[in-house]
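The pair is listed for reference:
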Amino acid sequence: MKLNRKQRTALSLIRGTRGRFFGLQTTQGETLNAQFRGETGNYIQVFDRNNGLIRRFAKTSLDKVSFGK
């Protein structure tokens, strides 16, 4: 799987959240308030605070991450 620079940056920000919630925007246009739970080679697993579900996204579907410092 080949990630572009925007996706690599988003993924490194997600890894650095250390269990805190962040805003996640996908390439499909979905926006959610999420908490990082884990990752595999192609997927990340997050807790969707909006719906109360654990969801899995392909790393290639990551678009933007907003995280207050």
User: Anything to note?
Assistant: The beta strands are 21-26, 31-39, 43-48, 53-58, 62-66.
